[in-house]
Amino acid sequence: MNFILILTPFFFVFEVWQLVISERYLGVKQIARGADPRKLGLGEATAFLWTVTLFVYWAWMILLLFFTHARPAAGGLALLSLIGFSLRRGNPLKWTLVILTFEGALRLVLLAYLAAVAWRHA
């Protein structure tokens, strides 16, 4: 279990990075300008890294479901991801930043819990 949980800080940093990127592309300044973030264009390297990390993140969450101590947080992360995606998809652009920020904060809490589990069972 320690090998799988050792990735927790990496995903914690990734979540913070997602919050920064979402503020940059969906932030208050962009909303005030009326800019469409889909037209701003994400750099190719950034988009590739982000996509690959999301796939690895999901694989990691699925692997965590096999460990008893990490199962509640892994299930919470997966459920939060699915709910967040469905809410973002159905809401106007102005609410997307609010949903992303709230979702990111909850993910950080669950990742902090996983870090505590890893520390306790090390």
What does this structure look like?
The chain is an all-alpha fold. It has one domain (2-120). The chain has seven helices and no strands. It has helices at 2-5, 8-26, 28-33, 37-40, 44-64, 71-90, 93-120. Helix 2 packs antiparallel against helix 7 (93-120) and helix 6 (71-90) runs antiparallel to helix 7. The termini are close together. The model has no long low-confidence stretch (mean pLDDT 85).
Tally of contiguous helical segments: 7
Mean pLDDT: 85
Annotation, overall tally of beta strands:
0
Shape type: elongated
The largest β sheet comes out as: none
The radius of gyration is 16 Å
Q: Approximately what portion of the residues adopt beta-strand conformation? A: under 5%
- CA(first)-CA(last) distance: 9 Å
Number of domain units: 1
Listing every helix as H and every strand as E from the N terminus to the C terminus, the arrangement reads HHHHHHH
Low-confidence stretches: none
Report helical residue fraction: over 70%
Structural class comes to mainly alpha
Q: How are the SSEs ordered, and which strands pair?
A:
Blueprint: H1 2-5, H2 8-26, H3 28-33, H4 37-40, H5 44-64, H6 71-90, H7 93-120
Helix pairs in contact: 2-7, 5-6, 6-7
Which structural traits does this protein have?
single chain; 122 residues; mainly alpha; 7 helices
Short description:
The protein is built from 7 helices and no strands.
